[in-house]
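User: quick one
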Amino acid sequence: MKHIYVHIPFCDGICFYCGFYRQTAGRQVREAWLERICETPVQKTNTLYFGGGTPSCLDTDQLDRLCAHFADCLLPGYEWTIEANPENLTAEKIAVMGRYGINRVSLGVQTFSDPLLKKIGRRHTADDARRAIRLLRQSGIENISIDLIYGLPGQMQTDVEQDLNEFLQLQLPHLSIYALQIEPNSVFGKQGIPPLAEETDADWYEMIVRTLKAVGYEHYEISSFCRPGMYSRHNLGYWNDDDFIGIGPGAAGREGHQRYLIERDLQRFIQVGETRCPEPTDAPFEAIMMGLRTMFGVDIEKWNQTYQNDLEKTYQAVLQKYMPDFLTIENGHLIATEAGMEQLNSILVDFLGTD
Amino acid sequence: MDQKHIRNFSIIAHIDHGKSTLADRILELTDTVEKREMKDQILDSMDLERERGITIKLNAVQLVYHAKNGEDYLFHLIDTPGHVDFSYEVSRSLAACDGAVLVVDAAQGVQAQTLANVYLALENDLEILPVINKIDLPSAQPDVVKQEIEDLIGLDCTDAIEISAKSGLNVDQVLEAIVHKLPAPKGDPDAPLQALVFDSLYDSYRGVIAFVSVKNGTIRPKDKIRFMATGAEYEVLEVGVHTPKEVVESKLGTGDVGWISAAIKNIEDVRVGDTITSADHPADAPLQGYKEMNPMVYCGLYPVDNAKYEDLKEALEKLKLNDASLQYEPETSQALGFGFRCGFLGLLHMDVVEERLEREYNLDLIATSPSVIYHVYKTDGTMEAIDNPSLLPPQQKISRIEEPYVKAEIMVPKEYVGPMMELCQKKRGEYKDLQVLDDVRMMLVYELPLSEIIFDFFDKMKSSTKGYASLDYEISGYRASDLVKMDILLNGQPVDALSVIVHREFAYHRGNAMTRKLKELIPKQQFEIPVQAAIGGKVIARTNIKALRKNVLAKCYGGDISRKKKLLEKQKEGKKRMKQVGSVEIPQEAFMAVLSMDDES
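Assistant: Done. Structure below.
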């Protein structure tokens, strides 16, 4: 499976929880960036992902040119996702997406509570989100995922339940629901907002998993839920130890098991094009770290083959410590149980300790 | 130089009253050290000393002073350690002198440490030269302080010199006063050799170097010498002085202060306070004042990583080469594996050794709570000295336990006498005396169990007197107490390294405080961990560390991998400093929990 990730580093405003590489650049910079991106050679791919930033904050014309550059690289049966925000996802932009064949949209809803949206620096209302979903469906894009966050400052359990209800009523095929992470370089991080207490986090997380599984959603990754089979195939690539190509400042990629970052310098990018900066990569461990996030786990035979090692032997002590409550082996896959997923960091620290 | 032109002296002061700064100025004014070579406070050569502002290792420097009368004088400035743990060492380096410069801070006045050191100096018949330092401080009250010195110490302060060691103001007068007011060494150059050992240093090429003050006779290379207390005999290879650079001399005569190298392999042979004499023409008797120093505080030291046992052993061997008062022997703990039971002169000594092991030898250590030596009298009539609580015999075999007591002299402003007495009472103290020192201060004398002093007495004293009290103590003897061993159980298993000996009346409170503190220090794990305190199998306090429920990064896509790995590596680093005991991971601090817990609430 081949994957391409394109990073659109622009936003119209900065959300208080966000620590991503993004900026609120003006039209000129966006144009210059787009020109460079459209010079990037692209290979054939199974999945293509426009992430950000806020890809939908490009204007209709810019979006058109961006899509045009990538439209030819898609292999049959492709998945092409774009991230969008409710406030700038217009009918015109949706029409452009449809025309080029974008077949999946990930919508940044975060919460359906207007007061909370305001508190976290979002520039849209719950109604904007509902309207955006309606427009997408009207144009024939049914494969919609929304992002929700729980643990926002001031959020109560009833707010979280309300958000879940709304998601269920919308009958969407995919949900990514994240516990709020306080990023050091975010507004919240700078304000010193404390993270959600562990007990509350666990209570709410378990409530969310319980609720969604009860109505037939698959809990296929720690923060990802979907109708049976409606996985984000692009994201599964990350968790499944696939290589992926990153394009544009702020993107990450991996080629031949070596990860890299595209240098986060918009000016330099505009002047000379992108620079790949290699990242220290420990592929065998990363395969486990990422693989255990999903319900499919780590394919032991594939791992042994790829890394010329013996997973069960190398990590014998860790497996012994965590099986069967937190880790299991099913059909040749090492899988984290629900309890295991919930404290995956603690388990991974022991995997780190073994080498 | 002839004996009349020699002056051997120390500077004595309370911590932070400016001893090291004055020493620096003296070195500068005598051109012993060029200004540009001056590192601040040059005598404190170890990093740790510099950081803590205390002197651990003694040093002696020889300098030449060109006095105003046109004559040159040979000064030996002998440095003294500045903490109650090292009072014997202080007394021996004072014994190496004939006089002392007493430095008192013009703002803070006389402190307990000042008094303690002055008493040591008087015991050694030293002439004392009072100097008032920091007179350039806005809060300086030199006249008040002089009066205080006269009242408390009985020294005439009419001619006390007012200086600022920091700026150098009037330091020249101090040098003149050393010439005219402090005596020259009195010894007899023709008498048999008597040289006082006041310090030693291990040199990996030359073995143990002894620092000596020659009281009578002369010492030369090739002389056969005998250490009178240990009986060890050696042939002298080299003698010399420090200026502060090392200089080799042809001899050390009466009144000289310098070093001797004699290919001495074993530091045990070179005891501070011992007398070196000639093996062929020995003196009749050693110099007075030699005492064998015994550790008062013990704790277990274990490597976090069991594989580092040999490294710890080597590090202790090396430290021991320079530190005769450090004792250690191997011990094993069920919880911690192989380690060493180490004996120290006091808590500070313990801290310093621990820190040096971690810093200079790069070891991750677990130190168990410090313990005193208990005398356990058993029903079969024998006595066992116990320095490790987990080794206390079963209760039915004990007829009584005795613990060391100290005589504590606490100098405290009047308004804090109440709270201070309350604290001493609480710490099982027995009131002895209360003396009025001056208009504002009193001297409180208590007999206290040493175990209470090492527990948290210093911190409590500081907080109940806003830091104005100062304490000096010495062992006064052993007394029977109603003591019991309190065990700590984690997940139902007793952890031997966490056992403590406590007074029966305090057991319930300490048990509660200890379990609460452990709950705070031990991170949540995959299962619930009961924390219990028990006496003889009976649980007296209990709490639970709840099971960890959630520890996972919500978002992890292609761009998050590096960051996430860093986070995990950080968690792993934290874990490395923990000890796995049974199924429970315990952080290092937990083994010292007893010291940091608050047993008030």
